[in-house]
Amino acid sequence: MPDVIVYADPDDVAQATAARLLVRIGDVLAHRGRADIVLTGGTVGIATLEAAAASPLAAGIDWTAVHIWWGDERFVADGDPDRNEGQAQRALLSRLPLAEDTIHRMGSTSGFASAEAAAESYATEIAANGSPAFDVLMLGLGPDGHVASLFPGHAGYRTAGAAAIAVHDSPKPPPTRVSLTLEAINRAAEVWVVAAGAAKADVVAGCLYGDADLPGSAVRGTDRTLWLIDAAAATRI
Question: Is the confidence at residue 155, as pLDDT, over 90?
Answer without folding.
Answer: no
